[in-house]
Amino acid sequence: MKNTNEADNRTLTLKRTFNVPLKLVWEAWTQPEHIAQWWGPKGMETRVIEHDFSVGGNWKYAMTMPDGSEFIADGVYTEIVEFEKIISSANFKPMTEGVEIQALFEEAGDKTNFIFNVVHPTEEYCKQQEEMGFYNGWGSVFDRLAEYLQKEISSID
Fold first, then answer.
1. I need a labelling partner for 125 at 20 to 30 A (CA). Which of 8, 11, 42, 151 fits?
2. Is 91 among the domain residues?
3. How far apart are CA 102 and CA 89, in angstroms?
4. Domain of 13: which CATH number?
5. pLDDT: is 30 or 41 the higher one?
6. Gyration radius from the chain CA atoms
7. 103 and 83 in contact (C-beta within 8 Å)?
8. Rounded-to-integer distance, Cα 25 and Cα 118, Å
9. Is residue 66 included in any domain, yes or no?
10. How many CB atoms lie within 10 A of CB 130?
C-alpha cells in the first residue's frame, strides 16, 4: 500500500533561473531591505516587521494589498546553508498555515538556478493550496524578484 502522505505528494515546486550571480539572489533573500522590495505578489507592498536570519530566528512580514487590506506572513528559520538553502516554517495568514518553505540555490556560472518547495502537512491541503492559485501567486512573487534582481544588477554595472 502506498503512503499518500509522503513528502513528494505534499510538496508544490517552482523552478527558476535568475540571470544574475548567486550572491545577488542570496542577498535578495536574506537582507530585509531587499526582501521588502519583492516579497509578495504584484501590486502588494511588503513591510518587514521582524527578520532574525539565523537558525531558530523568526521572520514576520506584513503585506498590504492594493485595497488596503493586510495579511501577515511569518515563520521560523530551521536550516540555513549559506548560498545553498534556506528552510523555514511558514504561515501566510489567513490563506496558508503550517507549511515549510524551502529555497534552494545553485550557482550556474553568472546565473542562479533556484528551486522553491512548499511542503504541506497533508496531501489534501497541498491539493487545496494548488487549486487556490499557488503557481500563479508564487510565480508572480518570483517575477517580481527577477525584475528586482535585474534592476539591482543594472545599478551595479
1. 42
2. yes
3. 9
4. 3.30.530.20
5. 30
6. 16
7. no
8. 19
9. no
10. 13
Which residues, listed in sequence order, are joined to residue 11 by a DSSP beta bridge? Answer: 119
Q: H/E/C letters for each residue in the chain? A: CCCCCCHHHHEEEEEEEECCCHHHHHHHHHCHHHHHHHCCCCCCEEEEEEECCCCCCEEEEEEECCCCCEEEEEEEEEEEECCCEEEEEEEEECCEEEEEEEEEEEEECCEEEEEEEEECCCHHHHHHHHHCCHHHHHHHHHHHHHHHHHHHHHHHC
Q: Is the pLDDT of residue 3 over 60?
A: no
Work out how many domains the chain is built from and give that number. 1
Contact 152, 28 (CB under 8 A): yes
The whole-number pLDDT of residue 5 equals 53
Domain ranges, residue 20: 7-41+78-156
pTM above 0.85, yes or no: yes
Question: Rounded to whole angstroms, how far apart are CA atoms 62 and 157?
Answer: 32
Query: Cell numbers of 29, please?
Result: 533573500
CA distance 157 to 86: 28
